[in-house]
Amino acid sequence: MSKITTELLLERAVPRSTRLRKIETLNLSKLQLKTGDLDPRLFSRLRHLQKLDLSDNLLDKFPNSLTLPDLRVLNCNNNQLEDVTALKQFPLLEELTYENNVYLTLNDDYKVMFLLENLRLLNGKDITKLANHVRHVNSRKLTSKVTAHWEKFFRDQLPEKHTAEQVKSIRKKFLKSVQTNVVYGPSSLSEFTRWRVKMIAEEFLSYSLGLELNSDTEPEEKAEENEEESTESPREAAEDVAQVTVTPSKRKRNHSKSGTGSKRSKSQANTEEEAEDVSAEPLHFLQCHSKGNSREDFKTQLWSCVFEPVLDSGARKDPIVSSSRTVATCGGESVCLIDCETGTVLKKYKVATEEFFSVAWTTLTMVISDSRKKAHNILAAAGRRGIVKLIHVAADFCYGEIKAHKKPIATVCFSPTQETHLFTASYDKRIALWDIGIPDCDYNFKASQLLVLEAASIPLRIALVPTCPEQYLLAGCEGGCFAWNIKLDKGEKSRPFEAIFQFPDDESMTTSHRVDGLAFLNDDVVVSKSSKPGCIYLWSWSRSFDAKGKGCQRTVSAVILAELEWSTTDMSYLTLSTCPAKGYVFCGDEKGSVWMYNLSSYTTAWGSPKGKRSERRISPAQILQWPELRVNGEQPPEILVNNVVSDPAFTYLVVLTSVNITAIWKKS
Known about the structure:
The chain folds into 3 domains: about 5-105, Leucine-rich repeat, LRR (right-handed beta-alpha superhelix), CATH 3.80.10; about 130-210; about 280-310 and about 325-665, YVTN repeat-like/Quinoprotein amine dehydrogenase (Methylamine Dehydrogenase, Chain H, 7 Propeller). It is about 15% helix and about 35% strand. It is built from 10 helices and 41 strands. Strand 24 and strand 25 (about 480-485) form a beta hairpin. Keywords: Centromere, Chromatin regulator, Chromosome, Cytoplasm, Cytoskeleton, DNA replication, Kinetochore, Leucine-rich repeat, Nucleus, Repeat, Telomere, WD repeat.
């Protein structure tokens, strides 16, 4: 039930009123209001409201249809606002304050100056002159640059007689290119500039060139007034899963001695051990992350999966039995729990306005109602909104959230030694360490930020060093591979990276490359994947990092142990994983295949102080090729394998794709 009623509005009016339509000044401060409490139907009756105080509440955004046509003064101080663009619905606004909203930046100030033409005072300062510059001079400069970019790079690409598909293609390329290449003003305003450039470019295409696109492209989903969260029962979740069938007669399996469809060097002859067929067979193909439970959804990308840990503390000491056959997967608006053996979707958690990118498990010892302590598995899920959801899986309950970053979270992971310590890596070029606390029997908890690691580019994958997980963290980023000292007794809360690693690049070494795959094969051997075609390296953490010596931000050469033969694609974000207990590395490709490498015979030699690099690229033990599938009688489109993960015992292999299909293989 909403906290705001007609009676409350009449009582909080200044002065008190007997009719909603007579209220001109309204004080709704310090009411613990959330966005969902702002009922547009009720607010639409405040036709003559001119001054509104919403300070000291819990608002994270404004609903898009509050309908306050005469609003002139708005106070939103001390909230949790993440976006200001919805304020354009108040065109007569003259005075606006939103101080102490930690997620708002200088870029948001510029957005409201552009959107609200009557705005004079922002956070108590007269912005009339600056706002005129933003609306006119800034817009003219950007429009000129956008037009010039079209003329120079794109005008000749569009034929005089063009099809709808050609328009769609050129529009997509132009919008991407212009936002990347058109720059203006200080870097601190780059987000605002990209926002305006996109707006100007769309107007330019639509009005100047008549390229308003009428196609089946899906419009950007509008955020709900209040995000919709739901947890489905096993029966409900099972009903959401489309039936995906394999055509056995045409299902191909590829022994590594056979041709792989990729270019292979003549020197890469397989040994018998490398060519071992591990006999993995497909068990299930599930379509359980569909948007709106649509059976026709082949667009939702699946990104992350992790096996649930076993609660028995004795079993957890042995990595071979430290996980169950239950796996958590995420993609689109949902997180699913799947029984790998039966293919049953046990639970499904949905947030209608979210796109989940990463999940991670931890086990917390919680106090239950009769004061006894009991271990429970907690799942953290995060994505595009920069918010971490904390889910008590056994109770089917999302008990809390952490607004960790203003920009999307690429990946999350828990410390293996501190059960409440969670790392979040974000598009804001920061990695944050949080203590999520332990909820009490009423699910009250307190989260706190312990550390912020400053990255030079967007972090994509993170890994704690197994021999010292409380001291060093590695991250694969858009601009290279970095290491940080994360020891909490060092004092400073915000830290730069301590080392950047360089890797072979043709004839030289380079630090500048996208690292979109990162994992430890054992206590020392790191596996990292570069966006450079077919480039997966194995290298020694200790031998590389020890060469750094003392000092900060040193460039060090990775001590390469081996290179893996992989696809020649330059497709990014097809990540890898490892199974340390069995010495395996897994990586999917752009054709739906899974490359599996058995490296157990190499690790002993690599572990010696003078272990030499393997001269030739190591071939996969086996490549699992994507079977011919039919979903509702039709074949899905081109399939990319975004992620592939095994349980610690390598009994099951879970494959996440770009076409909303989760494949589960089982090793015989």
